[in-house]
Amino acid sequence: MKEETTPSSSGAILENVAVLGAGTMGHGIAQVAALAGHRVLLHDPSAEALDQGLVRIRDNLEKGVELGKVSPEARDLTLARILTSTTLEEAVSEATIVIEAVPEKLELKRGLLAQLEASSGPTALLATNTSSLSIDALAQALERPNRFLGLHFFNPVHIMALVEVVQGSATDADTLDRGVDFAQGLGKEPIVVRDSPGFASSRLGVVLGLEAIRMLEEGVASAQDIDRAMELGYRHPMGPLRLTDLIGLDVRLEIAEYLHRTLDSEHFRPPELLRQMVRAGHLGRKSGKGFYSWDD
User: Fold this and answer.
1) Contact of 173 with 180, CB cutoff 8 Å
2) How far are the Cα atoms of 84, 113, 125, 139, 276 from residue 18, in angstroms, in the given order?
């Protein structure tokens, strides 16, 4: 686990952060923002999803305390800084930074971005956590695309150091600087990339993951041995198949289909095995079964 600092240690300007979506990425973004000292309002239309998100945040922090990475005081302060709401307008009305983390569907994100722009203040920074969708395509829903950019966090958010700060063609310099500063204030290491399908990380990571699935499909080696090859031979912290389980096979399939269409490259054509597993509901850790079996 990456060592986490106490909230006041970074000296960053504190923000009112609204995170839209309490799922895999949203609850993680809310956690690291609150740990860094920001006031966080976590929004989801489902009260059950909000409850589950808070449970996962609490579990992550408890694990950090057990490992000596988070102090009990930091745990308690972090939890106290997170409020929840099922009402979008309430979530974003006082936010200075708004980050949407809903599923990777273009029209869903566009509709949400239009709503949050109308409900947030005129100077609020608007960000999307998309891992592959075009920032410019999403910005078509906005009247002020200059204050919009991508903040692509990685799963699990409280451990992974990288944040891709994605600059659209209309993103102004002040918005880009605010995005970089915010990521650094969370203790993350931002890289700036131009809007391009898959950005830097997904474009490389997806093609590696898809090739690993093809190798498994062809019987080249077991899932465990394919992963061990990359972990031991290339010092990857996690093999591509286990990582796919963690991301979600359905999420990886959606991204692969999008990149296959937009880049017109056979590298990104989803293997049939991936499609079969998604149809069967074997989505990875969140369903309990993927390329591995997950007890919890």
Assistant:
1) no
2) 10, 13, 10, 19, 36
**Assigned token pair, 91:** 């979530």
- Do residues 2 and 158 make contact, with C-beta atoms less than 8 angstroms apart? yes
Per-residue pLDDT reduced to its tens digit, 239-289? 999 999 998 999 899 989 989 999 999 999 999 999 999 999 999 999 999
Report all structural domains of the chain as residue ranges with CATH numbers, in order of start: 16-194 (3.40.50.720), 201-286 (1.10.1040.10)
Q: Is 73 exposed, middle or buried (0-12, 13-18, 19+ CB in 10 A)?
A: exposed
In the three-class reduction of DSSP (H, G, I as helix; E, B as strand; rest coil), residue 41 is classed as strand
Vertex 37: Cα angle to 31 and 48 (nearest 5): 30
Q: Which residues contact 115 (CB under 8 A, 6 or more apart)?
A: 88
Do the Cβ atoms of 139 and 116 come closer than 8 Å? no
Other C-beta atoms within 10 Å of 263: how many? 14
Q: What global pTM score does this model have?
A: 0.82
